[in-house]
Amino acid sequence: MTHSWPLFERDHRFDLGGDFRWTGKAVDQALDERLLANQALGAWDCDLADNRLTWSPGVYDLFGLPRGASVSRDEALSLYAERSRAALDRLRAHAIRHRRGFTLDVELRPADGGRRWMRIVAAPVCAAYQAVRLQGFKRDVTCEYR
After folding, report:
1. Measured between alpha carbons, how far is 34 from 31 in angstroms, rounded to an integer?
2. Contact residues for 67 (Cβ-Cβ < 8 A; gap 6+)
3. Where would I find the beta strands (DSSP E) of the chain?
4. Between the chain's N and C termini, which has fewer beta carbons within 10 Å?
């Protein structure tokens, strides 16, 4: 699944219905971990100035990494299958350049072994018409690929 969408569709694209209201705030300020756990989601935020990642516990679990570990974007990307990493790089660049959200299914090789498919739903956060952060959700969709 790959799809790019305009930011005004953000509320419809995060696939969380009326249970969650996207605020555009940083992950660590905006999200209730219990809600994410109930929805089997992980939330993430990437500061575009330095590519610093902020992850909720669910994202660490998807990547097979210890919760709270310091993870660089390059380290995270190394866990993507090559075709998925290339597709993510292209769609991410398009989202930043054109201020559009996106949805993408990617194949992961988690650090703790195995293989899994993950759906990324992302949107840029803009200031003065420039994307300054990307943030969104990640969900395990491995069962959809079996």
Report:
1. 9
2. 57, 60, 61
3. 2-6, 42-47, 52-55, 100-108, 116-127, 130-140
4. C
The length of the chain, given as a count of residues:
146
112/63 Cα distance (integer angstroms):
8
The CATH number for 111's domain is: 3.30.450.20
CA distance 55 to 48: 15
Q: Output DSSP code: residue 25.
A: S
Cβ atoms within 10 A of the Cβ of 78, count?
11
Token readout for 30 is: 């905006």
**With contact defined as beta carbons under 8 Å apart, do 58 and 40 qualify?**
yes
Give the structural domain span for 124: 2-145
Q: At a CB cut-off of 8 Å and minimum separation 6, what does 65 contact?
A: 71, 110, 111, 112
Span 61-120, pLDDT tens digits: 999 999 999 999 999 999 999 999 999 999 999 999 999 999 999 999 999 999 999 999
